[in-house]
Amino acid sequence: MKKIDVLVIGRSCLDYIAVVNRFSKKNQKTSLEFRLMEGGGQGGTASCCISKLGGRVVYVGKLGDDEEGRFCLKRLQDFKVSTESIEIVPGGKTPVAYIFVTQTIGDRTIIYEHNTLPKIEINPAVDTLIRRSSILLLDPEVTYFGNPLKHRKDQKIKIVYDGEHWREGIEDIMAVADYFIPSSDFLKSKELKFNGLSFSEQIFQLKAMIKGELIVTDGENGAWYVVDNRLHQIRPPQIKAVDTIGAGDNFHAAFALALSKGFDLHRAVKFSVAVASLSCRDYGGRKGIPDWTEAIETADNCRAIW
After folding, report:
1. Partners of 18 in the beta sheet?
2. CATH code at 126?
3. What are the pLDDT digits (tens) for 167-178?
4. Which end of the chain is more exposed for a tag (fewer CB within 10 A), N or C?
5. Is 89 buried (19+), middle (13-18) or exposed (0-12) by CB count in 10 A?
6. If you write DSSP's letter for every residue of 158-169 in order, what string do you get?
7. What b/e sequence results for 241-265 when a residue is b if at least 16 CB atoms lie within 10 Å of its CB, and e otherwise?
């Protein structure tokens, strides 16, 4: 069997995307510019990104046997993602997200359904996939994997965790993840009790709480990380962003693939910032994903600050 570059485990959903010129105020109307459907979910989008970049990726997730699930499955297959490990749940309901994007600056508001499908488990088939993989990318949907992975983790496998917000079981993930990658909004979690600390102090404080490396994504400011007790920042390239949906998912995807290719931390973050930025060129989080060559060339234009 071929070795898997990245094994992705997590959420898939259907995104209904509505593009408007501006967000309306309370009790007011605004006109719709256009709308579209796209496959969504952190795990699903990350898998598409890895495959588009040329990586060998297997995605583990669950979909309902409904129209939404069939659409999501087809979109994964369109990107040549291995879908053999996706479970189609009879009678299950594929979650849906409603996303409103402003056409002028690409701001977005997301209203999402909670996933009512059965939880993903580390069964023998998944355990075999983990052992075949170089990198394991976990999205927030499977934060509860932290505790079982403490006892199953193969030292040859690196775990990358997409930290969206504070969830039950996240302290176990902090203890097991080799790369803990939250957004800057995560630093505002009330559980961290970072009130009164500067942004850089918050990063160093969080770094002290985790086992592995910390990278914090920060939208138009790129990404931050700590090496040798020094704070580093990678600024994004000049890209005309129309939609930031999926930018974080694509950052995590690119980072996981970069690790599988042997990139050091500096180069991996540069590469990931470039991919995330380029993915914002089109609507839906997937159409703008670059190929490997464009991503590498663009990464060279990302500015490092330390």
Report:
1. 35, 100
2. 3.40.1190.20
3. 999 999 999 999
4. N
5. middle
6. EEEEEE-S--TT
7. bbbbbbbbbbbbbbbbbbbbbebeb
Q: How many CA atoms are closer than 13 Å to the CA of 206, on its beta-carbon side?
A: 35
β-pairing, 133-138 vs 158-163, is: parallel
Six token digits for residue 224: 């931050």
Dist. CA 38–CA 286, nearest whole Å: 8
Q: Does 136 map to a domain?
A: yes
Query: Of 251, 207, 202, which is closest to residue 226 (Cα–Cα)?
Result: 207
The reported pLDDT for the residue numbered 27 is 87
Asked if residue 105 belongs to a domain, the reply is no
User: Which residue type is seen at 86?
Assistant: I
303 against 184, higher pLDDT: 184
Return the structure tokens found at 139: 């999205």
Where would I find the beta strands (DSSP E) of 52-176?
57-64, 86-89, 96-102, 108-112, 133-138, 158-163
Count of domains for the chain: 1
Torsion, CA 19, CA 25, CA 26, CA 30, rounded to 10: -40
Angle in degrees, 0-180, between the axes of helices 247-260 and 42-52, rounded to the nearest 10:
50
Cα 270 to its chain centre, rounded Å, is 16
- Asked whether residue 216 is domain-assigned, the answer is yes
Asked if 71 contacts 65 with a C-beta cutoff of 8 angstroms, the reply is no
**Backbone angles phi and psi of 142, in degrees to 5:** -115, 35
Report the alpha-carbon distance of residue 62 to residue 137 in Å, rounded: 16
Instruction: Domain of residue 224: give its range.
Output: 4-12+41-94+118-305
